[in-house]
Amino acid sequence: MSEYILEAVDVSKSFHGRRGETTQALTGVDFGVAAGEMVGLVGESGSGKTTLTRILLGIEQPTSGTVRFRGTPRDRFTAEHRRDYFNSVSAVFQNPYSSLNPRRRLWDIITERRSIERRAPKAERRARAIELLSLVSLPAEYADRFPHQLSGGQRQRVAIARGLCEDPDVIVLDEPMSALDVSVSAQIANLLLDLQEKFSIGYIFVAHDMHMVRHLCHRVAVLLKGQIVEQGAVADVLGNPRHEYTRRLVAASELRSLEPEEERVHP
Amino acid sequence: MSSALESAPSSPAAGRPPRPWLRLRRRPGRRPWFSGTVMAIFAFCGLFGSVVAPHDPDKVNLSQALKPPVFAGGTPTYLLGTDQLGRDVLSRLLTGAQVSFLVAAGAVLIGGAIGLLVALLAGYSGGRLDAVLTRVADASMAFPVVLLAIVIVAIYGKGVTVVIAVLVVAAWPQYARVLRSEVIRIRTQEFVTMSRVMGGGRFWAITRHVVPNTIPTLLVLATLQIGLAIIAEGSLSFLGIGVPPPAASWGNMLADGRNFLATAWWLPVVPGVALSLTVLAANLFGDWLRQALDPATRR
């Protein structure tokens, strides 16, 4: 069971509203990612996808249950664990226009993790940034640019380069293509697959687009109202959905592909 | 077609429509000649005014009273004329600039620092502390500055320090309110979340991400406040609760000079023009600074 690098074990999360009401965002969720695999996380808005990823990333604390990293629960982390965790678990967010600090140059953004650790001199950070830029197919001279000089797709490449800085084992991808147009998001998808092949990174891929999940992911988990209703290999879950909700999701995605607007995009 | 239009860089031939008469948007990369020069002169006089002053600003010489400026028929000895006590107006203007500069710098730096600190506390903590700080800021904004000045002067007496203190009390809520919403806007951006994912703590996020991104707003506010502080010092001194005479300040000079508007116009006009020009320049300079510091318009 513990082949997962990063996993949520029986995680529940409730939020307390201003007037004392409680919202149950997650209920007893078991979810994990192993090395080199891509796990899709699907579900409608408000189903708890983002909350789950935020808990896995340590931004949010679960109300009950634990997050384990390489088998060690988060609350039993030593300083050594913490450093390993911050180096090995990374993320790429949805909106490339707000995920890069507009006042920093790209080399500085990409290697921010190294300056948090306060161990790398500037020259070394720049060299690493240039290395990472070439990995995401951006020219080295971009290192000294500012984010506003880049297009959305290029910014997302920079965000991926930042995610790769410390050779992570897990990257949480929170709808990384949703702000990009179709051709650019295909390029980003290919880039992510190439990187996975090269470094055998485990991806958690939060998605709306069922086609993307079908083409990219090995496994998929379906979230509904804070609970995982179905989880397994993509072919099983999406090919032969057991739960009514999954069936509706699949049907909806197939319906969408029949719409005339879609046909014009792919003639 | 006139040759002037043809030689204009933005003629229709260049593919752009002809420039409207009233150009509201300034060209990027343009240097702030006017405001920069005036601000530089103001800063210089503010620092070295009493050194370069040709006469002792407080020296009374009744035989030389009410001499007009040199361009209005006066003598070159008193370039901007003399007041009713025969004191050199130029020297008083220059030493008065020191008061204005000190007050403006003090009020802006201290007020801005307090405002930013409160904004960070309120915007970052949220909850009860945020609510309390916001109410305190609102309450202090509702309190009239002049009344506050009278109270403080009644307790501590007059002086430059008191003027600065009054202006700091009046100014910090303005910074705090605007910057608080900036802080909240910035800290919810994904690059701040990402810094937490990478193990950066609150201090890291504030110093590296939040504060640098509030700088443009802070600078624009600060330059506007320079203008307001100079005016406020003038107003307080004019009302007699600012810098105590006989020390020269622009507000004092205006207050003394207003009785001579009909007979010796230069007494109120000279400090008035200096004050207006400086305030105007401060506002224009702030405008330019905002553009120059915005990375989206930086080349």
From TrEMBL, chain A:
Q: Which UniProt keywords apply?
A: ATP-binding, Nucleotide-binding, Transport
Residue ranges crossing the lipid bilayer per the database entry: none
Return the InterPro entries for the record. AAA+_ATPase, ABC_transp_ATP-bind, ABC_transporter-like_ATP-bd, ABC_transporter-like_CS, P-loop_NTPase
Q: Indicate the segments forming the ABC transporter domain, all copies.
A: 6-250
Please give the SMART domains that the UniProt record associates with this protein.
AAA
Task: Offer one Pfam family short name for this entry.
Answer: ABC_tran
Tell me one GO molecular function of this protein.
ATP binding
- Domain of life according to the entry: Bacteria
Family in the record: Belongs to the ABC transporter superfamily.
- Name it: ABC transporter ATP-binding protein
UniProtKB/TrEMBL annotation, chain B:
Q: What is its main location?
A: membrane
Extract the SUPFAM superfamilies matched here.
MetI-like
Write the signal peptide boundaries: none
Compositional bias annotation for Low complexity? 1-14
The portions of this protein that span the membrane are: 33-53, 99-124, 136-156, 162-179, 218-243, 263-285
Residues in domain ABC transmembrane type-1? 97-286
Keyword set includes tRNA processing: no
Instruction: Give me the ranges of the annotated region Disordered.
Output: 1-22
Q: Report the locations given in the UniProt record.
A: Cell membrane
How does this chain sit within the bilayer?
Multi-pass membrane protein
Entry keyword set:
Cell membrane, Membrane, Transmembrane, Transmembrane helix, Transport
What PANTHER family does this protein map onto? D,D-DIPEPTIDE TRANSPORT SYSTEM PERMEASE PROTEIN DDPC-RELATED, OLIGOPEPTIDE TRANSPORT SYSTEM PERMEASE PROTEIN APPC
The UniProt similarity line reads: Belongs to the binding-protein-dependent transport system permease family.
Please give the name of this protein. ABC transporter permease
Q: Which organism is it from?
A: Phytohabitans maris
